[in-house]
Give the backbone structure.
Amino acid sequence: MVKLNKIYTRTGDEGTTGLVDGSRTAKHSPRIAAIGKVDAANSALGLAAVSLAGGEHAEAMHRIQNDLFDLGADLATPGEDFTPSEMTLRIVASQVDWLETEIDRLNEALAPLTSFVLPGGTEAAARVHVARAAAREAERAMTELAEAEPVNPAALAYANRLSDHLFVLARVLNDNGAGDVKWVPGANRT
């Protein structure tokens, strides 16, 4: 259980922050940058969820937001042992599987794409597209971190599936794709 009595601690005043294992790292390190991008994606998801006004899609967004806190905790735990434990929170395959199942379920009602889709359509879909772009940024930051330090493969898979899920959800929110804004290559050339 997390208990926060005091919001500021002053321990980061010199530009470092604490990790789960007790070590400290620079606030601009690739690990903290990845955690920050996950937080930004989570915030974008929160804004998108507000526009859904309840229902199954809002519930799914809240589930994903919770998973993104798990993902942040996973990234805040350096090391090569990706086995979850009572003291170590890790993204696990079942979280990735849930996203894949949701992608497949949502995609069933959609016609195949015949063009790339511009971010837009309904307000809810546009907000989900913003969250999708933020999720891709988080994934890129995580893969950059993975070049330098070990990162849980399930966490990387989760980040990859998340943006796919959000893309499909945006299409669903655009009247099952009927309201998608299609890209017209070269439409504005003179």
In short: The radius of gyration is 18 Å. Helices lie at 30-52, 55-75, 93-107, 123-148, 153-173.
